């Protein structure tokens, strides 16, 4: 099959998997078509009987939007592997098959994460030269955003997987954040010589050999993640998943305490009302809806996972991101860099 | 030597290593003596010529406070192993030697972390049955606090090390947070069957065999860390160090954004002034000074590491924590549990 990205340029949208149901997905599609005139064409995958009435009010040219029927839905409670086996006609599986068969380039889904990642990994092969896919996420930091990779796909990573993550993350950063030569940091625990663990020591050595390809800024420790040090944070899927979820938990805890303290007496409450704009602005700045999807990278074709509870705005952002990935020929460029990196890594250390 | 904790009941305080200098440490000692009448006796370790004038205004009975002279100081810029080799008469090294020689039970220091951990690990042996010490930290969460262990001492942990961390952390949680039977969670990436990495799968299996000793609540993922799920979070030193430092970085980033937004226009600024009490209360709730020290556990004797920039209040808290550790006979009780755990782990799985 060779490369798949850009083959058709279509975006396959799983219309059935999100918490808010197909109406929210259709609304997101409508908004995306309106907001982005040059958007890549979309194939909505799901139950035709449900989708057709919803599409009645969506103004579009016929080639912009088609339906691909799928009779089943993978729910949030389905066990990933079981879902793949039992629900072969689910919107999620069918959407991925469209990419596999070359009828679409990217899948957007807010369905069951485990099932989506398993289906993506099992149904789409990895790119030439890549052993394991990685999940990327865009995270706000001081004066901008960074790409975290891997946010959970590959918890038992080897050094060469992390080098591939650096390449995958750099390209995603370029496409999504518009940074031409993103600075890459390797997540570790103190930047002194000999700090970290065995995986990090070896990965650091490999990254130093690929600086032609990767703008490697060196190791980065926890203290600096939300400062303006790097644009791509590379880690294994175990560390990445724990980090990103614990950050979400911390923001929730912090916001909850703040809300509680602001309501503790009437003077504070009036003050809070006056400075309401600040809290809204803060919420907007850390709003994950702006970069609605976390892509599974390193596959022949891309899968953009949006949060299960995504609303129309988040899904619209994910659809837009899918379009940008296709237009930037991201996967072709990644494949070229992976091939060069593998050549460099194959040379024994002098 | 056998156990050391409780041998003398003295607290050796490194008077020279903190960013704010010996005057701040002496002031912390003065406050601790005043606030805690039954405090364990203290040996201040440092330059006698510097310390004696500072002590002039500290009211105490002679047996409550003595000076142990040390002519050198390990600075924040010293390389850990070099410092140990070259600065044999430093306050840090001498304080640890007091524990080694049975003249003190716990060291409190706000000096160079790397040097302190290296000195502790190399000069004090690990407890019977424990292969690697672990760094514990008390972290605020919804409706209380939890103990994170390991926060950075052992980045390449084996499953049995994590079981030991669970025991060390449970005892520290009991002593510091007053929770009789703390719930222990194993940090991982999703609580479904088969999630995590090889280390977690094996550790989970071992912890299930030691439920007589450890109140094991099962795996815990990032989403739940700051909720009220568990009292002790067990992880290896790599993950723990990244988590705790990235949380500090995130709180700083979040607070900075909030401050910026609150000052963005005059109405917000007035509102912020009115609700100032809320921000102060929030700061107090997440104030690390309340639990000034992070102990290095699993050694014959304990080392309490306070932040380099600790002020008198933080150092006072660390001294108080040292006293509580000694009074609770913490190390004797840990040694007994470690022995029982090692017996349980030695039995092959049926």
Describe the structure.
The structure is a homodimer of 350-residue chains. An 11-stranded mixed beta sheet of chain A has the order 3-2-1-4-11-10-5-6-9-7-8, sandwiched between helices. Chain A has 12 helices and 11 strands. The radius of gyration of chain A is 21 Å and the shape is globular. Helix content of chain A is 45%, strand content 16%. Chain A starts with 10 loop residues before the first strand and ends with a helix. With 350 residues, the first copy, chain A, is α/β, with parallel strands linked by helices. In chain A, helix 4 (91-100) packs parallel to helix 5 and helix 6 (159-177) runs antiparallel to helix 12. Chain A has 2 domains: 1-130 and 298-328, 3-Layer(aba) Sandwich (Isopropylmalate Dehydrogenase); 137-287, Isopropylmalate Dehydrogenase (3-Layer(aba) Sandwich), CATH 3.40.718.10.
Q: What's the gist of this structure?
A:
Two copies of one chain form a homodimer. Chain A has helices at residues 22-35, 48-55, 80-86, 91-100, 113-123, 159-177, 198-208, 237-262, 266-274, 276-285, 312-327, 330-346, and strands at 11-14, 42-46, 65-69, 106-109, 134-141, 144-149, 184-188, 216-221, 232-234, 293-297, 302-306.
């Amino acid at each position: 099959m060779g490369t798949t990205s850009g083959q058709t340029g279509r975006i396959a949208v799983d219309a059935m998997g999100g918490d808010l149901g197909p109406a929210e997905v259709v609304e997101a599609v409508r908004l995306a078509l309106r907001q982005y005139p040059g958007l890549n064409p979309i194939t909505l995958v799901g139950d035709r009987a449900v989708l057709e009435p919803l599409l009645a009010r969506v103004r579009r040219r016929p080639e912009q939007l088609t339906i691909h029927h799928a009779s089943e839905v993978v729910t949030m409670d389905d066990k990933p592997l079981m879902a793949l086996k039992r629900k072969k006609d689910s919107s999620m599986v069918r959407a991925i098959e469209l990419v596999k068969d070359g009828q679409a380039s990217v899948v957007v889904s807010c369905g069951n994460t485990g099932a989506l990642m398993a289906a993506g990994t099992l149904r789409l092969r990895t790119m030439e030269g890549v052993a394991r896919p990685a999940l990327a996420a865009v995270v706000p930091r001081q004066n901008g955003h960074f790409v975290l990779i891997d946010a959970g796909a590959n918890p038992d990573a080897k050094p060469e997987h992390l080098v591939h993550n650096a390449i995958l993350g750099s390209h995603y950063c370029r496409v999504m954040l518009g940074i031409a030569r993103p600075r890459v940091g390797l997540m570790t625990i103190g930047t002194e010589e000999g700090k970290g663990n065995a995986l990090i020591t070896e990965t650091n050595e490999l990254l130093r050999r690929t600086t032609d390809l990767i703008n490697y800024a060196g190791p980065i420790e926890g203290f600096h993640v939300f400062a303006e040090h790097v644009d791509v944070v590379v880690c294994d899927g175990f560390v990445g998943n724990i980090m990103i979820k614990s950050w979400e938990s911390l923001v929730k805890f912090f916001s909850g305490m703040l809300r509680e303290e602001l309501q503790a007496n009437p003077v504070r409450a009036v003050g809070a009302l006056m400075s309401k704009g600040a809290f809204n602005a803060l919420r907007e700045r850390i709003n994950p809806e702006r970069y609605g999807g976390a892509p599974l990278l390193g596959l022949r074709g891309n899968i953009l996972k949006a949060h299960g509870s995504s609303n129309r705005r988040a899904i619209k952002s994910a659809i837009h991101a899918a379009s940008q990935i296709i237009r930037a020929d991201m996967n072709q460029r990644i494949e070229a860099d992976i091939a060069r990196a593998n050549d460099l890594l194959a040379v024994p250390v002098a």
